[in-house]
Structures are given as C-alpha cells and as structure tokens.
Design brief:
Blueprint: H1 5-17, H2 21-43, H3 49-68, H4 74-85, H5 94-116, H6 119-141, H7 153-170
Length: 188
Amino acid sequence: MPFDIFNYRIVTERRLAKLIPVYRKCFAIWCLRAMFDFCRSRLTGAVDGNDAQFIGNSVDALWRHVIMDTTPSAGDLLAMTTRCSEINLNQGDELQGILLAQLLGGLLAAIDVFSSHSCRQSMLLAEYVINCLDADVSMRTGISPKGDLSAVPSVGAEIRVQEQMICYLEDSPSLSTEDALRFRQPHI
C-alpha cells in the first residue's frame, strides 16, 4: 500500500496525543535535531554563520529542556521566535531556500510545542523531516516522488525510525542525552 501523508498525519497525531507532554516535546525536538543535522551540510556557505549557529544553539537548548523536563521561559521562547523571523530565507539556491524554510518552520513548531504541548505541532515536525528529504531527492534527481514517498529510501527509512521512536516513547522511558540520536544512525 502506498504511503499516504494525510493518513500518516492523522495516525501520528493520535499516537502523540496519548503521550505525556514531555514525550511529545521529546519527539518534536528529536525530529528537529534530525532535520538540523540533515540540513546543516546542505546550508553551509549559503546561510549566514550567525544564523546557522543560532539554529544549532536553539536545537541544543530545547533538547536540554526536554531532558530536564523543564520549559524555557516565555521570554526565551519569544526571543527565539523573534530571531527566527529575522533570518533571510532568500539565501542560497532553491533547495537551500526550501530546506531553510522547513528548518525554521520546524524550529517555530518546536517552540510552540513547549508552550502549548500541541500534538499537531509535534506531528508537523515529523512531516517537516519528510519534506526536507523529499525536497532533497526532488532537487537532486529532478523527479518528485508524487506517488509513494516511502519508496524513496531516505523517506522510507525516516518513516520507520519515526515509528520506532513513537513506540519507544509509548513505553514511557526515562529520557537521556543519548535519546537525541536514538534510531537515527546512519540513515539521515
């Protein structure tokens, strides 16, 4: 059966709704970290170094809050949101612009998960990772996998590890620093 992104959204959001808020945050930042790691090398030279450092520092800071089960202050979240809005999206080539937009959208969604505990925003992070992989394949090959995204090896692997991570979180683990890369190596 071909992969259906709309069904995936519904199923993922329902499963995330059953998790306690800290696990939703964990899933969101886990996806954001993967997206940042995937985009980092592709954005090198196209994105201002300060912008790249800000994004990386934000991902690290949010992950530390997940591990400690704390929430950044409203002022810190507002400062991150404001800084995101100041980043020029017209840096680099078309693929780099798409990846940067997805990455910033993901960072903003992750920030929202911290303040709202939103299942939908957490699910959107999963979709943003898939979108980045799809855009990368489409731009490199000139072919957009309109049909079954899961047939694209990197996307299929991502769907599988997202499923594994949700299963892991459903078992209510104690979170650790190592969970930032759980199930991630080496597919992305």
